[in-house]
Amino acid sequence: MNMNEPENQTHERGPLNARDVCRRLPALAAEEKRLAWFVHALSQTADGLHDAAQEIAEILNRKGETRFEEEILRDDEAFLRRGFVRVPVKAAHVERELREWIVCYDRSLANSTREAMAEYERQESARVAADFYQTNIGREVWQTLDWCLETRRPVCLWGEAGRGKTAALRAWCHAHRGEARFFTAPSYGSQHEFFHAFAEAQGHPCGDGKAATEIRYRTQHLARHSGLVVIIDESHYLLNTDGAGRPPLVDWIDSALVDKGVAVALVGTPQFAARLAEIERKTGYNADQFRRRFAGRWVTLPAATAEEDLAALAARYLPRIGERGQRQAVKYAQHLRDVSGLFDLVRDAQDVARRAGRDEPDAKDFQTALEVRLSNDSAMDGAFAVIPKRAGASRRQPVCEPPAAEVQPLHRNIAPAPQPMESAALTARSRPALAEVTV
Fold it and tell me: How far is CA 87 from CA 108, 378, 436, in A?
């Protein structure tokens, strides 16, 4: 490569194929297998591998490493000839070396590059762990997935919606990109969509026109030979039944993955167990095989995020709204959708600040956002409150009505809220605002 060639040009760009990585695995040691999948994960994002190569090149240069480059030389007689010179390591050198290590089966990775790659992976894992705040729910998610990775045994994680399960899963997988793959089960629940999503998470191409059986064969082959932990979020969508009344995707996970030693983590809401029990009752399907396989770790996550964790999140993402505002944010989250409610409030406050030309929301921006959220929540409560219920069903109560004894309204002139069925158009002024904590 000529030294005048742009550094970001390599012999090839684009995602690496997971099948190429699998073909390399038998010849690799345990650490190299993890690094190979880490390289593969980096290549799946735009410029991800190139950005990593720049960091690795800096590590190599700090250690005094060099690389040979071809260059046109001029001798004493003014004749031109080609020769090789030693130059500092560039990102293009590293990226080309990593790609050729995966794709070309006769290539080995230089010891210096492998050590620098391992150092970069450790740094990235530590950075992700430091950037992600682990709540009481997030900590349990991480601990359970650590156990799954260490023991190679399947686990089930169940928790209420909006508590930060998916965010914790994504962060853990990002910190273990050489050891796990994560995807969300499609809500429609067809086998073709499920295996297509699985293949995308594994990182190998499969056309939309391919049959579900062909995609299934490829995904299960990769899952069995990759050594990666397979994490499936929203796993209650796996329970769509076939004509015989059984859930085929659950049976496939049992027989094709768990029985072959694949570490699987199923994550979803408590409706999974209720739905599975309903299938057993209506069809005679026996779920004992599933329960036996996943009996190692069946984890029910806490119903709500701890108050101190909500306070820490509010202080991290709304640092300029003051202690009073942060306490209000915590109260809002406790009464409305937990962590997801808190981040709805954070995003609205950030939108208000951005429109005002500020980088971060201040106390005024937060109060404006809080009023917007309360108006929105009241409208949604009113919409659901007037929907006729079937006989015997309990009427939905407003979700954001705080206990009157615990809080004081933000505005004294707001009238008490009517009962849910009194009006089809509840507004922010006909409903108490979220209360602040008395100092």
Answer: 21, 65, 63
Residues 217 and 175 in one domain: yes
**Residue environment code for 238-254, b if the CB has 16+ CB neighbours within 10 A, otherwise e:** bbbbeeeebbebbbbbb
> Does 11 map to a domain?
no
Tokens representing 86? 């030693």
d(CA 345, CA 371): 10
How far apart CA 233 and CA 156 sit, in angstroms, is 10
Domain-ending residue, one of 278, 300, 322: 300
What's the confidence (pLDDT) of residue 106? 75
Indicate the number of domains in the chain.
3
- Taken as a whole, the chain contains a residue count of 439
Structure token digits, residue 255: 């027989």
Task: Please indicate, yes or no, whether residues 85 and 212 belong to a single structural domain of this protein.
Answer: no
Say if CB 21 and CB 41 are below 8 A apart: no
pLDDT band at 120 (very low <50, low <70, confident <90, very high): very high
Enumerate long-range contacts of 207-216, CB under 8 Å, 24 or more apart: 216/191, 216/252
Q: Which residues of 44-83 are buried (b: 16+ CB within 10 A; e: fewer)?
A: beeeebbebbbbbbbbbeeeebebebeeeeeeeeeeeeee
Whole-number pLDDT of residue 405: 38
Instruction: Tell me the C-alpha distance between 147 and 189, whole Å.
Output: 28
Q: Does 398 lie in the same domain as 319?
A: yes
Domain containing 98: what range? 18-128
Instruction: Please report whether residue 439 resides in a domain.
Output: no
pTM over cut 0.85: no
Q: Which of 269, 300, 331 is the last residue of a domain?
A: 300
Residue partners of 108: CB distance under 8 A and separation at least 6: 101
Is 88 within a domain? yes
320 and 287 co-located in one domain: no
Taking 90 as the threshold, does the pLDDT of residue 86 lie above it? no
How confident is the model at residue 230, as a pLDDT? 97
Residue 101's nearest CA partner among 124, 117, 82 is 117
Which residues, in sequence order, are CB contacts of 413 under 8 Å at separation 6+? none
CA distance linking residue 230 with residue 252, whole number of Å: 14
Please check whether residues 247 and 168 belong to one and the same domain. yes
Assigned domain for 147 exists: yes
Q: Which amino acid is at 33?
A: K
